[in-house]
Amino acid sequence: MGEPAGIGGEIALKAWRRRGEGIPAFAIIDDPARLEALARTLGLDVPVRAIAAASDAASVFATALPVLAQRLRAPVVPGRPSAATAPSVIAAIERAARLALAGEAAAIVTNPIQKKPLYDAGFAHPGHTEFLGALAELEAPPAMMLAAEELRVVPVTIHLPLAEVPKALSTAEIVRIGMIAAAALGRDFGIARPRLAVAGLNPHAGEAGALGTEDAAIVAPAVAQLRAAGIDATGPLAADTMFHAAARARYDAALCMYHDQALIPIKTLAFDRAVNVTLGLPFIRTSPDHGTALDIAGKGVASPDSLVAALKLAAAMAAHRRTANAPRA
Q1: Which of 12, 33, 35 lies closest to 112, judged by CA?
Q2: Which of 314, 292, 313 is closest to 127 using CA atoms?
Q3: What does the alpha-carbon distance between residue 15 and residue 26 come to, in Å, rounded to a whole number?
């Protein structure tokens, strides 16, 4: 569902209209009446059909958008989030996780949420990722990957002020995130021997200590530990030379030390096509790499491109995971 006052419903309707482009069959957990009204308002010819179980989606998908009904408790005004709808948003996430954990859904693709209404309603998690980790009863937090055809990036630290990043970095955490990334590249992306490029924290990866000691003291030992564990990791590398085409051909994912070091290059290369992937969960979860876009909600101009990419990547990851988990003869 995502934030009902945002563009999630609109891009889901538009994604279904592109079902002939290799999009896998999907069901949306949402309020059928809301989606029908939204389709009428936007002039989108999308039949909506409530289904009883996720397994019904495949037989319905060719002729109608399958919906697992999650009724909203309050009216929705585009562009105006309300804490009154937060319980339905939270319930939709919980329901998706239960379906995935039970093997009734091959993957979860989440529409963007608006966090403040959830917090106002008592939501105790920073966002989707942490909530899904709690629902999966993980002992350690999952990791985030942004993925596109041109580049995959995995930040070690995410939503922190830049001044806090050096204090938050540790060799152990870099190794933990690197191990999660390498395992996911093998299991979910079908890469037999994943290659990780590990970015340095400082300019020129510290310039032999002249521009900071963290790269030698924290990052380099992490790279050594990853290599000792059998992972093809290189670094610490100067981030300013890691993302041109020839450099990207030498690795499968870039392990970055902070948010913008990872997100600026991928959003420059693939702004409308990048997909947010949560690594380390027992199920597959992707999402569009954009927010709720409240400023354009209800206007009919939202692009479904990132959601389409998220749906396609989720299907490809599910296929790789089935192959990886298949019994060997």
Answers
A1: 12
A2: 292
A3: 10
For residue 3, give the 3-state DSSP assignment.
coil
Sign of the four-CA dihedral 22, 20, 47, 303? positive
| Contacts for 82 with CB less than 8 Å, ≥ 6 apart | 5, 74, 76, 117
Cβ neighbors of 328 (< 8 A, separation 6 or more) are none
Give the position of tokens 């209800």: 298
Q: Consecutive 10-residue runs of the chain (329 residues): their mean pLDDT?
A: 95 96 95 96 97 95 97 92 93 96 96 92 86 91 94 93 94 97 96 97 92 95 98 97 97 97 95 92 94 95 95 96 76
DSSP bridge partners of 288: 275
Contact residues for 296 (Cβ-Cβ < 8 A; gap 6+): 7, 302
- Domains assigned to the chain: 1-142+281-329 (3.40.718.10), 143-280 (3.40.718.10)
Contact between 92 and 104 (Cβ < 8 Å)? no
Residues 6+ apart with CB under 8 A from 70: 1, 29, 30, 31, 88, 91, 92, 95
Q: How far apart are CA 89 and CA 117, in angstroms?
A: 10
* DSSP annotation of 158: -
The residues facing 254 across adjacent strands are 153, 197
Q: Where are the beta strands (DSSP E) in 176-256?
A: 195-199, 232-237, 253-256
* Helix, strand, coil tally for the chain in percent (to 5): 45, 15, 40
Instruction: List Cβ neighbours of 225 (8 Å cut-off, separation of 6 or more).
Output: 171, 175
Tokens linked to 104: 């009734």
Q: At what angle do helices 8-17 and 32-42 cross, to 10 degrees?
A: 70
